[in-house]
TrEMBL record:
Gene name linked to the record: LOC112264439
Biological process per Gene Ontology, one example term: B cell differentiation
Protein name from the UniProt record: Tumor protein D52
GO cellular component entries: cytoplasm
UniProt similarity note: Belongs to the TPD52 family.
Pfam families: TPD52
Keyword annotations of the record: Coiled coil
InterPro entries referenced in this protein's UniProt entry, alphabetically: TPD52
């Protein structure tokens, strides 16, 4: 029992939230009342378990320090670990079913958008060609009266000629 009391007095022990409240809470009427001996046993067990928690926390801290030292000796830096974690996470995302379905859907949407823009571009190009041909046709409708006007019309037609495909 002295050993359990020493664990509670240690300066390096970690006080848990509500630890003091456990000692000072009055027994509720709905809980069966305990004898003095049972209360003392429970207090001793509580102190023993708290001491174990402190010990385990210290062991964990020592193991974490050991892991950090080993990683440092191996040249594993936090940045390298972060890169590996991101790479692994990205690989998991790209192999997921949701990602594959989304990727396929976006691919189909992109193909349809490309086809729509191509079609729209062709329609606009044809419309400009129609307007150009109509202006040429209107130029032919006016019959030049003299040789000078005829030469100007031929020169104009030559300038407006469609480029020939290679």
């Amino acid at each position: 029992m002295e050993q359990a009391d020493q664990g509670a007095v240690r300066p390096d022990s970690i006080t848990e939230v509500g630890e003091d409240a456990v000692m000072s809470v009055a027994v509720s009427p709905s809980v069966p009342t305990l004898t003095e001996e049972e209360q003392e046993e429970l207090r001793d067990e509580l102190l023993r378990v708290e001491d174990e928690v402190v010990t385990l926390s210290q062991v964990l801290a020592a193991k974490e320090k050991q892991v950090a030292d080993i990683k440092r000796k191996l040249g594993i830096t936090p940045l390298n670990e972060l890169k590996q974690n991101i790479s692994k996470s990205w690989q998991e995302v790209t192999t997921s079913t949701a990602y594959k379905k989304t990727s396929e859907g976006l691919s189909v949407a992109g193909q349809k958008a490309t086809a729509a823009f191509t079609s729209m571009g062709s329609a606009i190009s044809r419309k400009f060609e129609d307007v150009r041909l109509q202006s040429i046709s209107n130029s032919f409708g006016k019959i030049p009266s003299n040789k000078s006007d005829q030469m100007k019309s031929l020169h104009l037609l030559d300038e407006m000629r469609l480029p020939t495909p290679l």
